[in-house]
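[recover] target loaded
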């Protein structure tokens, strides 16, 4: 696995967290060689697991993106400037199963450095990620409160842990 400067990565996290849960961040999944899709995510967490800097995302199996994430073990997470909030809303309420979100929005792809999945050109911050673990939520282990609030329909999130292989940003660190 490629190593990144973790202390630099952590400096960017508070900025990213302010975008969560809304307007969210854009995750690009799939690969340029097959098909890529973009989904808005509002729930994720960071930490160190297996001595790697790791991001954990939650994606419901009903999302088209889940199908791509199941087969491609790479993705990018992109923090967009506020001018893209309408695009975040669009990508969070339309499915790539029926439309090409790149064609329908002003999002432009950029080749990534460590992964086959594209990054987004105007992103303020991009994390290139490699999946280490895919798991699920066990309903029997969930609190009744969470179960009632988020899973009445039984569409339990999948949880994916991925190492962060590369970080790029155009943000002035003094502004963070
Ligand atoms: C602000 C916001 C945050 C969202 N966060 C998540 C999330 O963390 N996980 C998830 O599965 N869906 C989340 N969604 C819903 C998906 O983005 C939405 O269902 C999307 O249309 C799925 O696209 P797809 O079918 O192309 O994958 C969010 C939507 C919005 C607007």
């Amino acid at each position: 696995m490629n190593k990144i400067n973790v202390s630099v990565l952590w400096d960017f996290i508070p900025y990213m967290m302010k975008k969560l849960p809304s307007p969210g961040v854009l995750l690009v999944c799939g690969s340029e060689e097959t098909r890529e899709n973009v989904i808005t995510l509002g729930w994720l967490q960071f930490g160190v697991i297996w001595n790697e800097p790791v991001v954990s995302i939650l994606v419901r199996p009903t999302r088209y993106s889940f199908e791509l994430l199941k087969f491609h073990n790479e993705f990018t997470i992109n923090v967009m400037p506020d001018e893209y909030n309408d695009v975040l809303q669009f990508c969070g309420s339309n499915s790539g199963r029926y439309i090409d979100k790149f064609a329908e929005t002003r999002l432009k792809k950029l080749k990534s450095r460590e992964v086959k999945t594209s990054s987004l050109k105007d992103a303020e911050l991009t994390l290139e990620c490699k999946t280490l673990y895919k798991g699920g939520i066990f309903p029997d282990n969930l609190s009744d409160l969470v179960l009632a609030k988020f899973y009445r329909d039984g569409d339990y999130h999948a949880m994916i842990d991925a190492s962060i292989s590369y970080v790029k940003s155009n943000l002035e660190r003094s502004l963070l």
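[recover] notes: Residues 6-175 form a domain with the Pnp Oxidase; Chain A fold (CATH 2.30.110.10).
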